[in-house]
Amino acid sequence: MGVQVDEFARQLGLLSGNAARIFPFRPRARQGHQRDYYLSCLGARDENRSFPEIALRPQAGAWCDRFWRRQALTGKAVLTLAPGSGGKEKNWPVEQYRAVAEWWWRATGGAAVVLLGPVEEERGGLEVFSDCGIKARGLSLGQAAALLARSDVYLGNDSGITHLAAAVGARTVALFGPSDALQWAPLGRAVMVLSRNVACAPCAATVMKSCSHRDCLTAFSAADVIGEIEKLPEVATLTRGGSRDYSLL
Prior knowledge:
By secondary structure, this protein is an alpha/beta fold. It folds into 2 domains: 29 residues, no CATH class; 166 residues, Rossmann fold (3-Layer(aba) Sandwich). The chain contains 12 helices and 6 strands. The protein has a 6-stranded parallel beta sheet. Helix 8 links the parallel strand 5 and strand 6. Helix 3 packs across helix 6 and helix 4 packs across helix 11. The C terminus is likely disordered.
């Protein structure tokens, strides 16, 4: 448990007759990626540093076919955005996501799909995408995985959906602010992590929830992120070329 409730560990030990082996959620000292820490708890090692891979089920692929046809996405370059996460303190400002969506449409003639989960629906504030993004809401995990796998590029925060995008092989661009990218970055064959080297990042969970400036995320402009996305080999073949206009970003 991320909150590391001692009572939970104590009760689990009692219920198991003290046979359960209980490990802290995080290592007591920084020691690389969290995946490696979990493997060490099991006495296992990943000698080949393999990436996680999630295979899609046929029904998820069939759903994605229907979604592509229904939204007239066939033959278009698709950028999928996930502007939310379980912790709002880890979220890049939604207006910046909109600017990236607008640039994508102008540069590629394609479309932006905005992936929304229950948390984003509850928090609201996503009206900024009303005229520049196709909303995908109420999806099962399998449907979300299929949508991500079919996208040309995915952009999101430090979130479970970003880890899912990496695991299905999507070209993933992950924005990290208060979280430690060395410990929590998504693992995949086509992942780019963007983070700002500000003095106070990464920070403790208790600090990030009360931060007043969020410089680690607000220091990113849409133009900064677009500049990095443009460098991706997949994107170079999609853009229409010509001069870049960041005047509205």
